[in-house]
Amino acid sequence: MDREVRAPHGEVLSREVRYFVSSLDPECVTAADLLRYVRDHWRLENGLHFLKDRWWDEDRHHTRRPGLSACLAAINNAALSIHRLRSDTQLPVRAAADYIARNPAIGISMLNS
């Protein structure tokens, strides 16, 4: 995949080539399909994993009890799902989460409705 980053006036600021490995049959997939798969991957990466890794610092939570990390990850996933389903869609996820953190009654009401 070729990628270019351009300035608003059209000047190419950077160029890179990325290679992806796939088990898809080349005769059954189009270039548009492959582009969609790559974009969907990065949409998930940026929308979920970045949020969990950077904002909730999930990777630094360690425990010695077997299975507890998986339970904490499941709680984080549930909280994120509820947050996305119930929060104001006009606000960025981080802004809405910060608002709920400052007003815990709103978070509790999201669980009760």
What is the topology?
Blueprint: E1 2-6, E2 12-17, H1 31-55, H2 68-86, H3 93-102, H4 104-112
Give your account of this protein's structure.
- Helix content is 56%, strand content 10%.
- The chain has 113 residues and is mostly helical.
- It has one domain (25-112).
- A hairpin with a 5-residue loop joins strand 1 and strand 2 (12-17).
- Rg result: 20 Å
Q: What class, by secondary structure content?
A: mainly alpha
Helix content: 55-70%
> Number of folding domains?
1
Uncertain runs: none
Beta-strand proportion: 5-15%
Give a short overview.
The chain has 113 residues and is mostly helical. It has 4 helices and 2 strands.
Features:
two-stranded antiparallel ribbon; 4 helices
